[in-house]
Automatic annotation (TrEMBL):
GO terms for biological process: methylation; RNA processing. It comes from Nesterenkonia xinjiangensis. This is tRNA G18 (Ribose-2'-O)-methylase SpoU. It comes from the Bacteria. The keyword Methyltransferase applies. Keywords: Methyltransferase, Transferase.
Length: 217
């Protein structure tokens, strides 16, 4: 399991722990700017899909930038929310345009599994600054939380370009964000718990966007 690496920050998995990736390039080296000589020489053990094996980091980000989806995700971070790494990792997997951290700048990168290196992450010190940015970008702000007025995500038509905002464990979405949002959306629940984990909620919401807008296959 990748999570067994814990605080791994250099993006590589050592072969002794898990044989991930590929060894040194065999045969004549490919030519061009895409390729990283060190990876060609030493092998590529990074947490990247096969398509990007041996590519330079900057080349991968540049390629992702040509294909990013129209949705952004944002999460409030007033108390160092531990879900942010998960949100960043999922945003990377579903190719979000950007991830926005609102509140404290620092966040625990552990759960991101170094995916933040390939994801644009922008910080906004306050809800006001975040919403000003969203208005300037003409992006509707969609709060995701279980409020009485929330519309079920399952029946909501998500705009192709939007920013979905998630709250923190405990307090949930701030009142300021609730008021600023164009709409708030809830994920239907059926059991006894009051809510699901914010990282899980973010994954479900991002996938709802994928189901409605992404080209699959
Ligand atoms: C664990 S919840 C916060 C606790 C919640 N306010 C309560 O009263 O139990 C943290 C965040 O996860 C997201 N969330 C969790 N469950 C959700 C659901 N069923 N629908 C929409 N968002 C949800 C929201 O963004 C929320 O702000």
């Amino acid at each position: 399991m990748e999570s067994a690496r814990g605080a791994q920050q250099d993006e590589t998995f050592s072969p002794s722990e898990r044989e991930v990736g590929v060894g040194p390039w065999t045969g004549p080296w490919p030519e061009g700017d895409l390729w990283d000589p060190e990876l060609l020489r030493e092998g590529d053990r990074r947490n990247v899909v096969d398509r990007y094996r041996y590519w330079r980091h900057e080349a991968i980000v540049a390629d992702l930038d040509t294909r990013r989806h129209g949705f952004h995700v944002a999460i409030e971070n007033w108390q160092h929310d531990f879900n942010i790494g998960t949100v960043v990792r999922t945003a990377n997997a579903f190719l979000a345009a950007e991830v926005h951290i609102i509140g404290r700048r620092r966040w625990n990168r552990r759960g991101a599994m170094v995916t933040d290196r390939y994801q644009h992450v922008r910080h906004h010190p306050s809800v006001e600054e975040f919403t000003a940015w969203a208005h300037e970008e003409r992006l509707p702000v969609l709060g995701v939380d279980l409020f009485p007025e929330s519309v079920p995500l399952e029946t909501y038509t998500l705009p192709r370009e939007c920013v979905m905002v998630f709250g923190q464990e405990g307090p949930g979405l701030s009142e300021e964000m609730r008021q600023a949002a164009e709409a708030t959306l809830s994920i239907a629940q059926f059991g006894s718990t009051r809510s699901i984990n914010a990282g899980t909620a973010a994954g479900i919401a991002m996938h709802a966007w994928i189901l409605q807008h992404a080209q699959v296959g």
